[in-house]
What we know:
The protein is mostly beta strands.
Amino acid sequence: MTPIVGDGSQDVHGNRIVSTLGGVALNNNGTLVFGAEFENASDRLGSSAGFYAALETGRASKSIVPVFAPTDSVEEDLIKLKYQGSYIELEFGYPLSYGYIPMVGGRILDKTVDYALNDQGEFVFSVNGALIKASPKPGLTVENPVLPVGPSTPIGPIVSPVGPVGQGFRLPVDMPLCGVIMCFFDPVYSVGYVYDIVSSSSQSFKTVLIPGPLPNGDSSFRISFSGQVFDLNAGQEFDISAVVSGGVKRFEIFGIDLAEQVEADNPLGFVTGLTFGGELLSDFFFDMYPILAGCPVSTGADTCLIDSIANQNLGVDALDGTDTLQLGGANPFSFDVAKIGSIYRNFEVFEKIDGANVTLTGTATVAANWDVFAGTLTASGGNAIFNASGVNVRSGATFAVAASETIGRLSGAGALTLAAGQTLTTGDGADTSFTGTTSGAGGLPKAGAGKFSTLSLGHTGLTTVAGGELNANGTIAGSVQINAGATLSGANTIAGNLTNLGTLKSGNSPGSTIVGGNYVGGGLMAVEVVFNSAGAPVNGTTHDYLQVGGNVTGTTQLSIIPFAPSTAPTATAGNGIELVRVGGTVAANAFTLAGPVIQGGFEYLLKYLPDYAATTDGFFLQSAARQELALNAAMLSAGRDTLRACARSSSGHPGLDGAKGRAWAAGQVGNLDAKGSNALEIDADHDCHGGGADFALTPALQLGLSGGYGSTQADVTISQGRATLDGDGSVIEARAAYVAGGFYASASAGYASTDWDIVNAGGGRLQATVDGMVGSLETGYRIAFDEPSTLSLSAGLNYDGSTCGDSCLLAGVSEDPSNWTAKVGARFDTSLNDGKIKPFLAIGLSDDLDHGQSVTLGNAVSVSDTASMLFDVGAGLDAQVASNVSIFAKGGYTRGFDTQAEGYQATAGSKVSW
Length: 914
């Protein structure tokens, strides 16, 4: 092994060692030490300057052989020292050994090599010049170990930073390299120590020695590495490499008796001898940090209490088990969280105890979930708590945020204080609950995908729901902003403003949100509604409810959610279900439905009612039968209206007037716009074409056959909007009549069918067929006046049994059509131009005996009573164009008495008699 020099360079040239050693001196024991810094002039043993060198020759005795030179040079036997201006040259007259030279008190034990010795076996030299007294370089002796390198007390030419926390050892320093001899190290304060190589993968700890008992006699310790624990006795070198081949990179010594009271300012409190394996490169660095007094360390569960700023300078490795680091004491102090994970290692539980305020400073680099049992834990600097960590505040304790902080979770029942202008961002993917109080002028952003549940929030800064869900039940002293993708829920009263860019869920099952300030929309409001109570709603009880004291801007979609019980929904009454009340200004479209609200047979529609109570505006849900029900009823009505106009208008006395038969053909166009009692309105246009023939079997008995086809196009106005009906139908009937003088009676029976194509108010298409038996009964009497005028009076019943059937447009629907219509009429006929022109005037009154078409699903009913109490008036003429051929034309007008119905008909055709 090459002999060792100080902090200069060295070279080996054959038998010569050349060194640029900067300074060498003797200590008080006459032992030469390397690189010792010269002390003041009073430390000199003489007045002359000198240059000195030394050869490290010992291992077993750990001693140094002194070799030095005066100002010039001296030659003693075969050892030569020469001053060469910038370096000292030490020359031996024998081959240089690359091994260890065992020495005891300067005597050579191994004489296998020819050394220059005196009669006593010692090196012989003479001294000319001064000797300078100096302290040994740290690490050479137990009395002067290497101390930790820290920013405030650097040793040697060390480039800062020197370690994770500035309390480790870096090699090489101005001392012998420890690859040759055992070097001695001492940290500042401990009842146990952790040794950790952090700089390289090639070095390891091989052996360790505690030189002797501690001042109070403690000499029995424990050493732990690689999951194993062994006894360690002072004065006995422990060979780690005998247990783990090659050594280890980390080990712990613990079990130092607290009675030793190792003080922080005692550099000789605990000295450790170490040897290393592997090549010691210039970047080699290892940590050596203490286990604090009061923090017992074992492989089980341990608790370490830090109760002052003086009791936290270095650190603890808690080893295995569930270990607790506690902060607390009688007086306030601060704690640098950067020490967690660096010099406070392997702790799993972090607690704030006692009543004093502990302020966390620095930047957290590892997760530490804090449990605040008592007093106040203050987070300062903005990074005092790791972003993914949680804080649990027990009842009676306080968590204070002095600078904006981000944590993973906030829980507990204590107090949270937020400094003005600062924020505590909390929330991750987990659901948490904080039932304590908040105060201060800071803000509380909720982040993460989890649900954060709170009671009242007393801080006056902005509460931002940036992610997940904030469930706040109580009062919120400040304003609230819900960001896109986030949700605010709970029954709460917000003193400030509410900006909803995400989702608002008022209440819990259900509930209310009361906003004292303004509301800014842009998101969604999820509204739970008990539809079984739709007829008797209570705000905030049977449905979610939003009340805004100020103005409303922006737009908000309302997503309606049925809340049990809602399986038997009822119709609304009065204004309906009040979802939103606004005391200030609001636009009619500020709240809209996110989609159709359909429950059972009802569809619930949003209605804006301005100034419904003084200057208060409101948005209400109002019930209507589902479109399928209303369109089913409208389809039945429109078909019957077309049949009535085309095939049931009064044609007067049916007699053939002496002819044996008659055939006819006609076409008609018409319209009926009828609005029923339930606001269903049908505006129907029809055109129909038909014909028939009557035959006289006897002078009193006639038989006939008639039929036709037609189409109906109807615009149907329902609560949901406007729909269209497009029907193509046909009818065929057989008829018999009995005539005796002025009296007549007739009956008909047949079949009618209409195919309907329906487009609902939302643009959806439906198809259906309405068909069934039809018929009529009519009786009358014709009164003859002075030739050629007559008056016919008639009464009758019309039957229309056509139906679509149950579940026609919607499964579960029950259809109850109106089948019977009663009518009475009068017709005045006369003739002109020798009977070739026969004008007439007719009036009639008809009524739906079944009170309309009824379609039901659950509690929802849609009725179309457009045929109730209709008055008809018509006029026309027959014009004979040949002896047995005539043409006819007539027009009519219809008006409803009970309903808003109005329409017209125009008919033209021809007849042939024989």
